[in-house]
Amino acid sequence: MSTPMLYQSRNDAGMLKDEIHITTGLEFLHDVAIDTHFVARGRIIRVAQVIATNPACIGLGLE
Q1: Residues in CB range of 60: below 8 A, 6 or more apart
Q2: Predicted TM-score of the model (pTM)
Q3: Residue 27 to residue 11: CA distance in whole angstroms
Q4: Which InterPro entries does the UniProt record give (predicted)?
Q5: HSE value, Cβ hemisphere, 13 Å, CA-based, for 38
Q6: Contact status, residue 55 vs residue 31, Cβ threshold 8 Å
Q7: Total of domains in the chain
Q8: Which residues pair with 3 in a beta bridge?
Q9: pLDDT for 4-60, tens place per residue?
Q10: In this predicted structure, what is the pLDDT of residue 56?
């Protein structure tokens, strides 16, 4: 529902280039990347890579 939106990524992905797939979501939230099960699945690396490739974006991790 956000812009950008993560899809088809493993939980441990993000250390290498092209492991994170980003697309445009439904654009309900502009410039906010949301990732669920944030702490339990250790997804901080995924969100960090999204923010690195979209510097105007805010990363939001939901548990």
Answers
A1: 32, 33, 34, 35, 47
A2: 0.74
A3: 24
A4: Class_I_gatase-like
A5: 12
A6: no
A7: 1
A8: 30
A9: 888 876 666 667 777 888 888 888 888 999 988 888 888 888 888 889 888 999 999
A10: 92
Tokens 């974006």 -> residue:
57
First-to-last CA distance in the chain?
Answer: 17
Tokens of 12: 């441990």
Neighbouring C-beta atoms of residue 61, cutoff 10 Å:
15
Domain encompassing residue 43:
2-61
The residue among 25, 23, 22, 21 whose CA lies nearest residue 1 is 25
Q: What is the DSSP letter of 54?
A: -
pLDDT of res. 13: 66
pLDDT at position 50, please?
87
